[in-house]
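Supplementary Text 2. Reproducibility record for the structural model of the 337-residue chain.

All settings were left at their defaults, and a single model was retained for analysis rather than an ensemble. We include the record here because the model underlies the residue-level annotations in Supplementary Table 4.
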Amino acid sequence: MGPPPRPHPVAHPPDSSLTLPPLQNTTSSGESIQAKSVEAMVMSIPTLNKIRILSKISPPLSNPSPASPAFATRGFIISIDGQEAAAVEQITAYLNTVLTPSHAVKVFQPPLAAEESKEGDTNKRVQSSTNSIESCHLSMAMYLTLSTQLKSYITSALEASTSAASSPAVSPKSVPAKTKPAAREPGTPSTGTPSSILAEPSSAARVEAGRTGSVTRTLLPVALVPSYQLTQTDKSACRVPIDDNYAPTDHWQWMASMWRGIVGPDITIAVEAYDELGQKSNNGKKGGGAGGEVDVRLEDSRAVIVRVEKGGKVLEGSLRRVGFEVGEWMRGRSGSQ
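Retained model, structure tokens:
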């Protein structure tokens, strides 16, 4: 008797319960969550607190010591900061327009962002490690150069010629005699800087105007710096990961400390973005209204906070308010720096 017949194999469909889900990069997702958490905490620090901390680390240009030569003049540095690039550019352009007739205004663009740099060995090194502490140190080297340029500009007397129609000629007989102040010798205290926003032409210049039809006047220099210290500190604190025991607030303050030795602004105009419900877009906290509000804190913090809707433009009324407040503040402090 032969062996029993073998059963034919029956094909069974695969059991879906045994199918493994696709592998997920838990490290990448975890880092993304941590980065968003750090950014939320960094951007939740009140803007005025940040400005005050930066002003202690990097104060405005101080008067020279008694043993140093006096400044030829003392102008102002105005920074326009915020993460809303369009609004920052809008305010910068407006101030450039309204201040130019009576000031020597120059816009100083900050060093190119590391990821936009294409030339130079230093820039290539920064570009290769944009999310590292190394990139922050390399960027500060470029800002030290900018600091030197800013200090030189606001302490240099700049002249401009205007038509004699706006400044009538004066005959030599009608010009009262004036004694020219003696130059300050090294080692003697400074007696102050020029005391007017738009210095009156000298007697000789007015007499010359009658013959040439123009008057030379000294304009107070004003440097506008968009996306300066506050903007770059926020970006660095949000971009560079925290790989140690630093808390996000300490992480931001460490980034701020890197500005030590670099000249700070006399006025900081900070743009804060809000959504249509009037809530601060970066952390969901109430901010006191939607776009269009201007909070003037020049006396206690040398700051002006401009609130705009996220992705929107600065309202015309807000621009006029900023221009007026900045002009009045400078007029009141010209000569008392």
